[in-house]
């Protein structure tokens, strides 16, 4: 049995409150890791994108600010999953200035 199997078995025995505590601990432990969000030089100007796509996080955030719900965004981008959006929103919370700057920069380009 692998370590991940042992952990999975242990986690299933935890209460919801204990799982929440564990999740908070894991989030602190991994720090600035954003699974599913990638920054690749030369792709979308180096903006953070959803894994294996050219869908920039700032674009998703701009749609959200325009009032689109997660469901509407997922309907517009059928290759994305709810998990992709959750990862994107986490990235936005941790990189607010970067996202603000990218939105502003791209709005200037549209003028």
Descriptive key words:
single chain, 5% strand, elongated, 6 helices, 2 domains, mainly alpha, Arc Repressor Mutant, subunit A, two-stranded antiparallel sheet, 111 residues
Structural account:
The protein has two domains: 1-31; 34-110, Arc Repressor Mutant, subunit A (Orthogonal Bundle), CATH 1.10.10. The protein has six helices and two strands; from the N terminus they run H-H-E-E-H-H-H-H. The protein has helices spanning 3-12, 16-30, 57-65, 70-76, 82-94, 96-110; strands spanning 37-39, 48-50. The chain has a two-stranded antiparallel ribbon with strand order 1-2. Helix 3 packs across helix 5 (82-94). The radius of gyration is 17 Å and the shape is elongated. The termini are far apart.
Structural topology:
Blueprint (H helix, E strand, L loop, with lengths): L2 H10 L3 H15 L6 E3 L8 E3 L6 H9 L4 H7 L5 H13 L1 H15 L1
Antiparallel strand pairs: 1-2
Helix pairs in contact: 3-5, 3-6
Give a concise summary.
With 111 residues, this protein is mainly α.
